[in-house]
Amino acid sequence: MYLVVFRNRKRAGIDIAAYGAQAERMEHLARAQPGYLSFKSYIADDGEVVALSEWVDEAAARAWGRQAEHRLAQADGRTTWYDSYTLFACDAPRIHQFDAKDQA
């Protein structure tokens, strides 16, 4: 599994509806990409967004990063949507799991 964490803060006064429409389109396209596993996004109380995407491997994640329409959305992010962002990516993350259902 290859994990991508995208932390961002949006600029004040952006068109939230337009941003939402583009984000929805990107999620739809990502789901269709070979190697896509999952995507979730969370908003902190202070407005920071943390988006997590999982891919089968680094090649799949990088291919998504090079997808043409996604490249345009990335450019929009830098010029229009985001005040700041940080992207973290790693393969073979340490994984610890717990599921209360497993406890007898």
Summarize this entry quickly.
The protein is α+β, with helices and mostly antiparallel strands and 104 residues long.
Plain-language structure description:
- By secondary structure, the chain is of the alpha+beta class.
- It has one domain (2-92): 2-Layer Sandwich (Alpha-Beta Plaits), CATH 3.30.70.100.
- The chain has three helices and four strands.
- The longest helix is centred in the first third of the chain and has 16 residues, at 16-31.
- It is globular, with a radius of gyration of 15 Å.
Order of helices and strands: EHEEHHE
- Give the domain tally: 1
Give the CATH topology.
Alpha-Beta Plaits
List how many beta strands DSSP finds. Answer: 4
Q: CATH class, please?
A: Alpha Beta
Give the SSE layout.
Layout: E1 2-10, H1 16-31, E2 36-43, E3 49-55, H2 58-66, H3 68-81, E4 82-91
Antiparallel strand pairs: 1-3, 1-4, 2-3
Jot down its keywords.
3 helices; Alpha-Beta Plaits; 38% helix; 4-stranded antiparallel sheet; 33% strand; 104 residues; single chain; alpha+beta
